[in-house]
């Protein structure tokens, strides 16, 4: 049986969640469990999640739990505490994965030198694929640690972000303290830095797709500028609470 628990933080994700959940119903092999952690949605996210339950095989446990405090880091930590799998996979509600992702995750972590992994994220919309921004995000996995932590880069540090579907061993996640709940953004990069103390960070040569809704709202030029600005300032140590004001929530 699979040892992978997939944790999905949600907040007003009714427009994206059903497609993501339907993709999870065809995983082969199946995940051990799906844990949906809602931070207080005011739309019909919860109702939609409950509606999707009957699509899942009977041998897949799907939990829908409510977190009293909203915030991606808080919700993912809460989901991790309620999960039972030996491997934790953190999936955004607007990201779709391949049918064999469980196998890829488990095979990646058979290497004891690897503490955390993620995938190449391809940003797509209803009528377009954001090739340029997707390429930049791919390269950022490498150039960000190379610029800001070159010694660690050559030791195996890569900088992953949430839409890359990060995964790690449960014991390593707990050992490093999980996500920093004080961070409103960049909690994923911070987790990479903490997990790197326990092993290499690996970018798996497989693709997941994620919504381009932020780029569609901002425009490609503005989005790229914000990504660069936030990334550079975070890399030199600027407080993530200050950076959050440049990174509005978009649903």
TrEMBL record:
Keywords recorded for this protein, A-Z: Cell membrane, Glycosyltransferase, Membrane, Transferase
Residues covered by the Glycosyltransferase 2-like domain: 5-173
Protein location: Cell membrane
Top-rank taxon: Bacteria
Protein name: 4,4'-diaponeurosporenoate glycosyltransferase
Function: Catalyzes the glycosylation of 4,4'-diaponeurosporenoate, i.e. the esterification of glucose at the C1'' position with the carboxyl group of 4,4'-diaponeurosporenic acid, to form glycosyl-4,4'-diaponeurosporenoate. This is a step in the biosynthesis of staphyloxanthin, an orange pigment present in most staphylococci strains.
InterPro entries the UniProt entry points to: Glyco_trans_2-like (IPR001173), Nucleotide-diphossugar_trans (IPR029044), Trfase_2_rSAM/seldom_assoc (IPR026461)
An example Gene Ontology molecular-function term: glycosyltransferase activity
Pathway: Carotenoid biosynthesis; staphyloxanthin biosynthesis; staphyloxanthin from farnesyl diphosphate: step 4/5
Signal peptide: none
Spans through the membrane: none
Record-linked Pfam families: Glycos_transf_2
NCBIfam families in UniProt: glyco_like_mftF (TIGR04283)
Family from the record: Belongs to the glycosyltransferase 2 family. CrtQ subfamily.
SUPFAM superfamilies registered for this protein in UniProt: Nucleotide-diphospho-sugar transferases (SSF53448)
Gene3D superfamilies per the UniProt record, alphabetical: Spore Coat Polysaccharide Biosynthesis Protein SpsA, Chain A
One GO location term (cellular component): plasma membrane
Main subcellular localisation: membrane
């Amino acid at each position: 049986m699979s040892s992978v628990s997939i944790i999905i933080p949600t907040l007003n994700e009714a427009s994206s969640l059903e497609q993501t959940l339907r993709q999870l119903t065809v995983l082969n092999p199946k995940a051990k469990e799906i844990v949906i952690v809602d931070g207080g949605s005011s739309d019909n996210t919860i109702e939609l999640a409950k509606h999707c339950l009957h699509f899942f095989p009977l041998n897949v446990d799907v939990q829908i739990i409510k977190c009293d405090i909203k915030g991606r880091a808080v919700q993912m930590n809460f989901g991790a505490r309620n999960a039972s799998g030996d491997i934790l996979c953190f999936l955004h509600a607007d990201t779709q994965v391949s049918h064999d992702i469980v196998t890829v995750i488990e095979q990646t972590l058979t290497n004891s030198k690897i503490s955390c992994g993620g995938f190449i994220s391809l940003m797509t919309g209803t009528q377009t694929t954001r090739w340029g921004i997707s390429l930049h995000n791919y390269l950022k996995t490498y150039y960000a640690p190379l610029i800001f932590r070159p010694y660690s880069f050559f030791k195996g540090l890569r900088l992953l972000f949430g839409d890359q579907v990060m995964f790690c061993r449960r014991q390593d996640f707990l050992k490093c303290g999980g996500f920093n709940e004080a961070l409103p953004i960049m909690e994923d990069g911070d987790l990479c830095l903490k997990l790197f103390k326990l092993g290499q960070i690996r970018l798996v040569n497989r693709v997941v797709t994620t919504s381009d809704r932020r780029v569609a709202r901002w425009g490609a030029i503005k989005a790229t500028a914000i990504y660069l600005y936030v990334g550079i300032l975070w890399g030199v140590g600027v407080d993530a609470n200050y950076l959050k004001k440049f990174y509005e929530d978009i649903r």
